[in-house]
Amino acid sequence: MPESPEVSVIVPVRDGADHLRRAVCSALASVHVGEVIVVDDGSTDGSWREAQSLCLDQRVKLHCHPGHRALGVSASRNLGITVSQCELVAFLDADDYYLPGRFEHAVPILAADSTIDGVHEAAGTWWATPALESWWLRHYNARVLNGLHRSVAPEDLFRSIVEGNNGWLHTSAITVRRRLLERTGPFDPELSMCQDSAMWLKMAACGKLVAGRLDEAVSVYVVHGDNRVLRQRALKQHFEDLKDEIVWRWLLARPGLHSAKVVQGCQLVRRRHARAADADSAWRSVATEYPAMLDDASFSRLKVALAEGTLPTPGAACAESLNPPGASKHNVGA
Predict the structure, then answer these.
(1) Partner of 123 for a Cys bridge, out of 9, 135, 173, 302, CB 3.0 to 4.6 A?
(2) Gyration radius from the chain CA atoms
(3) What segment(s) does the record annotate as region Disordered (predicted)?
(4) Assigned fold of 7-240
(5) What is the DSSP string of 81-103?
(6) Mean pLDDT across the stretch 269-298?
(7) What residues contact residue 160 under an 8 Å CB cut-off, 6+ apart?
(8) CATH 3.90.550.10 spans which residues of the chain?
(9) What is the pLDDT of the chain when averaged over all its residues?
(10) Distance (Å) of CA 62 to CA 47, 57, 136, 158
(11) Contact yes or no for 25/56 (Cβ under 8 A)
(12) What's phi and psi for 177, nearest 5 deg?
């Protein structure tokens, strides 16, 4: 049996002193965890002191941004990735926690097949109050498990996620090889929400992700009054509606990806905008929420193609026709 690789668990925290110990200890409980990287994102509530006390366990490593600044969850996860040492990487928000046996399926799957880049599983849900539980079940179709509803082949995962009819991947239930993060590049610090959603799309586009446990939770997503998903539900939905565009420029900049995956992006973006009642309004929304998109030459060409109805059809020449000028055909890095 191949030797089991160890996991680096990255825990960003901002003003999460009340929950941090539970999160970190839930990760340390796994024999597969080689280190827990806590990244403090400018906390003002005692999270730093709490994290320092957790460092009595030598597997806990504490980091912060220069000057203890708050740079956001993406920058914090990116810092954690940079300083981590293990072959496998997993993520855990400070107010969530792992369940016993979190990695007992994912790690053996990765150890047994070196061609697999990552394993996605299901996360459970815990509500702080009955009112929050009622709200969640109304808005999320009574689903308690967060993850894909059914397993799909790795080559179909990208389309399944973008189409949105088979569930979604969850931050605390994904385990990936470091090499996949080298291909995708970092979490996008320009996004104010759904940074993880954009990352999972990137992973599905350029990696081989397989399902682990989908019918049983490996972690718990805690829903409480402070969750940004509750305070900013409308904004989150806006980003979900634009998730294909968010990833589009990343795909175009990586012509080394299989052309079929780029074609999938073309077709899905085209269908979405064909359904839009006001395409100009949609693009104004993009400009407002994610202005860096419109500074990108690839997006400028995409907007013109959408307006003129000239998006390419599937075929071997598709990726070539969409490549940014001067792009390397084999560059799949950040």
Answers:
(1) 173
(2) 20
(3) 315-334
(4) Spore Coat Polysaccharide Biosynthesis Protein SpsA; Chain A (3.90.550)
(5) HHH--SSEEEE--TT-EEPTTTT
(6) 48
(7) 148, 152, 166
(8) 7-240
(9) 76
(10) 11, 11, 33, 34
(11) no
(12) -80, 150
Q: How far apart are CA 102 and CA 35, in angstroms?
A: 15
| Cα separation, 304 vs 310, whole angstroms | 8
Q: Please work out, in degrees rounded to the nearest 5, the angle formed at the alpha carbon of residue 238 by the alpha carbons of 122 and 314.
A: 80
Distance CA 327, CA 253 (A): 7
pTM of this structure: 0.75
Two structure tokens written together for 186: 């970092």
Which among 195, 36, 9, 181 is positioned nearest to 106, based on CA atoms?
9
Q: How many CB atoms lie within 10 A of CB 239?
A: 20
User: Which pLDDT band, with edges at 50, 70 and 90, does 297 fall under?
Assistant: very low
| Maximum separation of any 2 CA atoms in the chain, in Å | 61
**Bridge partner residues of 38 (DSSP):** 11, 62
The answer, yes or no, to whether residue 231 has pLDDT greater than 60, is no
DSSP collapsed to 3 states, 169-188: CCHHHEEEEHHHHHHHCCCC
Quote the CA–CA distance of 76 and 122 in Å, as a whole number.
24
Report the pLDDT value the prediction gives residue 324, as an integer from 0 to 100. 32
Q: Which residues pair with 33 in a beta bridge?
A: 7
Sign of CA dihedral 153, 276, 244, 195: negative
Burial class (CB in 10 A: 0-12, 13-18, 19+), 208: middle
